[in-house]
Amino acid sequence: MKAVVKSRAEHGADFVTDLPEPEVGATDVLLEVAAASVCGTDRELYEWTPSAQAFNLRLPNVLGHEISGTVIEVGKDVTRFEVGDRLALESHVPCYRCYPCSVGDAHNCTNMLLLGMHIDGGFAERTAVPESVGVKLPDSVSLEVGSLMESAGVAWTAIARSGFAVNGANVLVSGCGPVGLVVIQLSILLGAASVVAIEPNPYRRRIAESLGATVLDPFSDDVVAHCRNLNPWRGGVDVAFEVSAAPSALPTLLESVRREGDVVTIGHPSSAVPIDIAAHINKKGITLRGVFGRRLWSTWEGLSQMLESGRLDLSWLITHRLELDKFEHAIELLTGDANKVVLFPNGVPARG
Ligand SMILES: [Zn+2]
Ligand SMILES: [Zn+2]
């Protein structure tokens, strides 16, 4: 079958047409992959950057971790799904045996395996995955939107991690890639009083503005002064989300939130970022939290409900739909004027 395989610990990945069919274990489901969205992490894996190398891949491995598809076969011990079910996949595969797993923190499993890095992923016509990572899509949610839920779930988790502090609040979002944009969208949907975004790229700035954010340029605007002047009585925004991964971003956010405000970090900076503990954490009383992936399974429950209700739409995120053999072009698009680039391993569906 067709697949994109990372075979060697070096730059690149190969589009192949002769990969053997996946083996379906007793507790696995076999999916015909409908859509596999391309993530910035896939570009890192392709380019083999230091942060990609830090994932300790099992090679060779089929790339792709933002996946939706239809069940075409179930292992003999599978209990939750049947042939024909439409699923989105959680990409983090917990062990359900370690300490965090045993106390309900499976999102932080000490033995976590990741689809597309340690288990064959979704840049393939078919993929076999443990049934434990399957999430049934509501009937009204399309398979292509299903492939966006993994990354949108990061945005949902970040807001949940703030204690849903966006409600009635002035919100600051640093970085307007797909996850940052969904943080903006969800903040407004969940009742933010205002959203300020920080983004230098003109294409992304326009999208953030169209969602309802006031957009500042980190290189030419005084972000801290703007946030303090929004409500001088409060002295800054109530909650801030760091999605850009730029090492210089966090200090600005810590200056821009009010006393006792919340900061949630999502982007992974490539180097350690110093924090002024005395000024920001102790005296200012900021609560700083981080996010990696989604909360299992409250994120999926919340996001599914919002999509099913029709109040949340994610389809606007998709700017490019490509065949699987255009994988390298998809990687190139990520650095240009694109939002979500989605691969369709069994062909791009006709759109009416
Ligand atoms: Zn990803
Ligand atoms: Zn575990």
Give an overview in words:
The mean pLDDT is 97. The strands form 4 sheets. Strands 3, 5, 6, 9, 10, 17 and 18 form a 7-stranded mixed sheet that branches. The chain has a 6-stranded parallel sheet with strand order 13-12-11-14-15-16, sandwiched between helices. The protein has helices spanning 40-47, 50-53, 99-102, 143-146, 149-161, 178-189, 202-211, 223-230, 249-256, 277-283, 298-309, 327-333, and strands at 3-6, 14-16, 28-38, 61-62, 66-74, 86-89, 92-93, 113-114, 126-130, 134-136, 170-174, 194-198, 214-216, 237-242, 257-265, 287-290, 318-323, 340-344. The radius of gyration is 20 Å and the shape is globular. The chain has 2 domains: 3-148 and 314-344, Medium-chain alcohol dehydrogenases, catalytic domain (Quinone Oxidoreductase, Chain A, domain 1), CATH 3.90.180; 155-290, NAD(P)-binding Rossmann-like Domain (Rossmann fold, 3-Layer(aba) Sandwich). The chain is built from 12 helices and 18 strands. It has 352 residues and is of the alpha/beta class. The protein binds zinc ion (ZN) (2 copies). Residues 94-98, 100-101, 109-111 line the site of one zinc ion. This is Alcohol dehydrogenase catalytic domain-containing protein. Residues 12-343 form the Enoyl reductase (ER) domain.
Offer a concise description of the structure.
Helices cover 28% and strands 25% of the residues.
Topology:
Layout: E1 3-6, E2 14-16, E3 28-38, H1 40-47, H2 50-53, E4 61-62, E5 66-74, E6 86-89, E7 92-93, H3 99-102, E8 113-114, E9 126-130, E10 134-136, H4 143-146, H5 149-161, E11 170-174, H6 178-189, E12 194-198, H7 202-211, E13 214-216, H8 223-230, E14 237-242, H9 249-256, E15 257-265, H10 277-283, E16 287-290, H11 298-309, E17 318-323, H12 327-333, E18 340-344
Parallel strand pairs: 11-12, 11-14, 12-13, 14-15, 15-16, 17-18
Antiparallel strand pairs: 1-2, 1-4, 3-5, 3-9, 3-18, 5-6, 6-10, 7-8
The protein binds zinc ion (2 copies).
The site of one zinc ion has 10 residues, from helix 3.
